[in-house]
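COMPLEX REQUEST
Ligand: guanosine-5'-monophosphate
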Amino acid sequence: MIVPGNLFILSAPSGAGKSSLIKALLKPESLASARPMQVSVSHTTRDPRPGENNGEHYHFVSVEAFKAQIANNAFYEYAEVFGNYYGTSEAAIDAQLAQGIDVFLDIDWQGAQQVRMKKPSVTTIFISPPSKEELENRLRGRGQDSEEVIASRMEQAQAECSHYKEFDYIIVNDDFDQALLDLTTIVNNQRLKCRQQSIAQQALFSKLLENDHKKA
Ligand code: 5GP
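STATUS: Structure written out below.
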């Protein structure tokens, strides 16, 4: 019997290092690699950017196709961001989970709220920057953006941070290796729960409980 996969949401203000953490977690040498893991590929109505591939970075669809999927209740969650739609397909996620794949959703707090309502078993993780100064340093990046752009990014980041209490776990990404270990611990913790282990270790427990010992 296949052990169903776990669903995880990772949310963070941009600049917290979420993408690097997910990338490291999914590497073959990661301490969480004992079970298959995938990042969910969202649907969007925006145009692909150079270097983006359909089905890899996003599923690029028309507004009509996206609206038809909304009408069919096909999304775990969706949002309109800067005039484009973005959504997480319920059927695709459920199929991955049924195959025993742990799935990671890289979505914001609004998406997290919607998924939590539909799937209360989801594990939600907030990744925080270590300080406001460090966040600003990271958002300033290569120093090519105007003060106005940076101020607007800081405002967005603060809005994301204001929802930290809604999450099951909080990881402060100060030292990257420690943050990765924290993330790995959360993922492995879910896998070790009795609900999952009783399926994964079914053969072991039926042997342990076999009544075949001889009485003296
Ligand atoms: P971009 O167009 O730069 O790839 O993404 C724009 C924004 O849309 C980002 O803040 C990203 O987190 C968000 N986003 C991407 N996919 C989804 C999704 O499936 N659901 C929601 N709610 N937001 C998404």
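REMARKS: The mean pLDDT is 94. Residues 56 and 158 are 30 Å apart (CA to CA).
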